[in-house]
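TEACHING EXERCISE
Course module: macromolecular assemblies
Task: Read the component lines below, then compare them to the predicted structure of the full complex.
Student: A.B.
Group: 4
Components provided:
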Amino acid sequence: VKHPVNAQLQREAARFALRFACEDCVHFDADRVRCTHGYVERPSRADLAELGGLLAFCKEFELDEGK
Ligand code: SF4
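Instructor-supplied answer key:
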C-alpha cells in the first residue's frame, strides 16, 4: 500500500511515533542491509520527509520491539 506524503501524514506520524520502515522491522537484516524476505522495495524513514512523495507500507512489516 502506498500513501501520498502530505503535511497531515507528517504531523500524525510524528504525533503517534509511526513505525513503518524496514529499520524498525524484525525482518530487516541491518548487517546486510536487506529484507530477509527478499523484498527489494524497502520503506525508509527518509521517505516520510519528502512532501509529495509516496510512502510505502509493507504488508509484512512487524515491529521489532528491540529497536
Ligand atoms: S518485511 Fe517489509 S518492512 Fe520488513 S524488512 Fe521486509 S520489506 Fe521491510
